[in-house]
């Protein structure tokens, strides 16, 4: 018989073990990795999602991360030839006294796919499908795709979303403990070079050199500016 002097008589130890088991079970559920599927172009994403639709995994929760160039549905921003990212940020910050109505309807898209999953009607979709749904619901497809990433098992995106640390940070992508698949991985070197490269004109270099000349001649942080000036001169 259990003694009366220890926890086994009151069942406390059993409750503690049960609590530990439940905690471990919850941790196991939370640690299920996402699959990040990187491709070279957006067109290839369309091909892959079309093939996914033909498999037994068509109903798996998914999302496609893409730029505003492909997903923005705001009539002014989407039709503009200037920087759409900057225009979008200005609208969200309300700098001109106006906001984006579509951004405030983002939740409608996630609710729609949640209902589709609940009724087992959800199928793999493409960027064009998401944009069409966004227009129908008057909801931003760009931010909807990012919101869907939280519950997605598969995340499709171009290479640079996974390789470029700045894009990863801005898109809240954490690859630790996740599964990463790179389609046509022989293109990774070129994509990696593009992520850490920057294009400048000769005019920009000459302007930079003139400004650095002023800094050096006026004894403003000479140790920092002299090496930069030397780089500009050598490139010119």
From TrEMBL:
<dbReference type="GO" id="GO:0005524">
    <property type="term" value="F:ATP binding"/>
</dbReference>
<dbReference type="Pfam" id="PF06733">
    <property type="entry name" value="DEAD_2"/>
</dbReference>
<dbReference type="GO" id="GO:1990918">
    <property type="term" value="P:double-strand break repair involved in meiotic recombination"/>
</dbReference>
<keyword id="KW-0067">ATP-binding</keyword>
<keyword id="KW-0378">Hydrolase</keyword>
<feature type="compositionally biased region" description="Basic and acidic residues">
    <location>
        <begin position="12"/>
        <end position="27"/>
    </location>
</feature>
<protein>
    <submittedName>
        <fullName>FANCJ protein</fullName>
    </submittedName>
</protein>
<dbReference type="GO" id="GO:0005634">
    <property type="term" value="C:nucleus"/>
</dbReference>
<dbReference type="GO" id="GO:0016818">
    <property type="term" value="F:hydrolase activity, acting on acid anhydrides, in phosphorus-containing anhydrides"/>
</dbReference>
<dbReference type="GO" id="GO:0003677">
    <property type="term" value="F:DNA binding"/>
</dbReference>
<keyword id="KW-0547">Nucleotide-binding</keyword>
<dbReference type="GO" id="GO:0003678">
    <property type="term" value="F:DNA helicase activity"/>
</dbReference>
<dbReference type="InterPro" id="IPR045028">
    <property type="entry name" value="DinG/Rad3-like"/>
</dbReference>
<dbReference type="InterPro" id="IPR014013">
    <property type="entry name" value="Helic_SF1/SF2_ATP-bd_DinG/Rad3"/>
</dbReference>
<dbReference type="InterPro" id="IPR027417">
    <property type="entry name" value="P-loop_NTPase"/>
</dbReference>
<dbReference type="InterPro" id="IPR006554">
    <property type="entry name" value="Helicase-like_DEXD_c2"/>
</dbReference>
<feature type="region of interest" description="Disordered">
    <location>
        <begin position="1"/>
        <end position="27"/>
    </location>
</feature>
<dbReference type="GO" id="GO:0006289">
    <property type="term" value="P:nucleotide-excision repair"/>
</dbReference>
<dbReference type="InterPro" id="IPR010614">
    <property type="entry name" value="RAD3-like_helicase_DEAD"/>
</dbReference>
<feature type="domain" description="Helicase ATP-binding">
    <location>
        <begin position="1"/>
        <end position="232"/>
    </location>
</feature>
């Amino acid at each position: 018989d259990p003694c009366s002097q220890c926890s086994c008589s009151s069942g406390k130890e059993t409750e503690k073990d049960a609590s530990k088991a439940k905690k471990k079970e919850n941790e196991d559920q939370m640690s299920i990795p996402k699959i990040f599927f990187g491709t070279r172009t957006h067109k290839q994403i369309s091909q892959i999602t079309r093939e996914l639709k033909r498999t037994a995994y068509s109903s798996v929760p998914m999302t496609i991360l893409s730029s505003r160039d492909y997903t923005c549905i705001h009539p002014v921003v989407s039709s503009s030839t200037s920087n759409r990212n900057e225009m979008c940020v200005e609208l969200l910050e309300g700098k001109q006294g106006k906001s984006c109505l579509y951004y405030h309807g983002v939740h409608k898209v996630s609710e729609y796919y949640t209902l589709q999953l609940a009724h087992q009607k959800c199928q793999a979709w493409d960027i064009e499908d998401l944009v069409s749904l966004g227009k129908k619901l008057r909801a931003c497809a760009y931010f909807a795709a990012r919101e869907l990433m939280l519950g997605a098992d598969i995340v499709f995106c171009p290479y640079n979303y996974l390789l470029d640390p700045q894009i990863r940070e801005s898109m809240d992508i954490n690859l630790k403990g996740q599964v990463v698949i790179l389609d046509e991985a022989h293109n990774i070197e070129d994509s990696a070079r593009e992520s850490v490269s920057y294009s400048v004109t000769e005019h920009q270099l000459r302007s930079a050199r003139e400004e650095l000349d002023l800094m050096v001649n006026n004894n403003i942080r000479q140790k920092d500016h002299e090496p930069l000036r030397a780089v500009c001169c050598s490139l010119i």
